[in-house]
Write a structure and sequence with these properties.
This protein is an alpha/beta fold. Helices cover about 35% and strands about 15% of the residues. The protein is elongated and about 55 Å long. Bound molecules: zinc ion (ZN).
């Protein structure tokens, strides 16, 4: 943990950079949702500890045991429904409101950014709002309890699967392209709550832009910590509202970051 003074000085650097920025890119990972009580992907406990994640989140695992895979995703879906967005999610939505060129890309599939009021979210790994057919690509919305286990078969002969990018699959091309372009043109990149080890999404943090001011917001050191301009050792829910608050306090700052109630 950084000393209070150190964090303050570092935060000032980020604020100065944001104040000058014409374009901001934010990448979030499971750390921001952990603060809403959702376990990180590999931090799952209970019964599921006996399963390798590849059994639960891969095309092969799904082909072998679709009921097992849907049981796991239905539990996760129910947890997403119970969880509430936290101050970190809300702060990011305020940044979007205040900045003309702002892009949020997330590795999370829990929809918490949307529920916090972010409007344009590039969901790199898909979402659990929908199932889609592995054969004909039809979609169907998922209710709070997920997919009934006796409805896995689709009339076309295929199977409904979560609309999630699994191990061994490619990211959706249009989403990936837009995220890459936003990362490349950004003046400031915030890397929030991601260990920055899941490629290719993690490449957005440092690989496409040599000129941006990159700040990492994470309670722990990550593989990119020594390559970024600024590392804020704290949680998203602690650090991001401080940044938004400081930006809104400064009268010379052009963005209007005043706190507004959200629906
Ligand atoms: Zn189908």
């Amino acid at each position: 943990m950084a000393e209070a003074d150190g964090t303050g000085n570092l935060t000032a650097g980020v604020i100065a950079a944001l104040r000058e920025a014409r374009s901001v890119f934010v990448l979030t990972g499971s750390g921001i949702s952990a603060e809403s009580g959702l376990p990180t992907f590999r931090g799952v406990g209970g019964l599921w500890r006996t399963h390798r994640v590849e059994e639960l989140a891969s095309p092969d695992g799904f082909a072998r045991d679709p009921v097992l895979v849907w049981t796991w995703y239905n539990e996760r879906k129910a947890a997403h429904e119970r969880a509430q967005p936290n101050a970190g999610h809300f702060a990011i939505a305020q940044l979007e409101d205040a900045l003309d060129d702002f892009t949020l890309a997330t590795q999370n599939v829990d929809s918490l950014h949307l529920r916090a009021g972010s409007r344009k979210v590039l969901e790199l790994h898909g979402s659990l709002r929908e199932a889609r057919c592995s054969n004909c690509n039809a979609g169907r919305p998922l209710g709070a309890a997920g997919l009934p286990l006796d409805e896995i078969d689709h009339a076309c002969g295929g199977r409904w699967r979560p609309d999630i990018v699994w191990f061994g699959e490619s990211l959706p091309q249009d989403v990936w392209q837009r995220a890459r372009e936003a990362a490349a043109r950004a003046d400031v990149i915030l890397v929030v709550g991601t260990s920055a080890v899941v490629y290719p999404a993690a490449a957005l943090a440092t690989n496409y832009n040599r000129g941006a001011f990159v700040a990492e917001i994470n309670p722990e050191a990550t593989p990119i910590s020594d390559r970024v301009a600024c590392t804020l050792r704290g949680s998203a829910a602690e650090v991001l509202p401080q940044i938004v608050e400081a930006l809104s306090r400064d009268e010379t700052a052009s963005p209007d970051l005043s706190v507004r109630p959200r629906g």
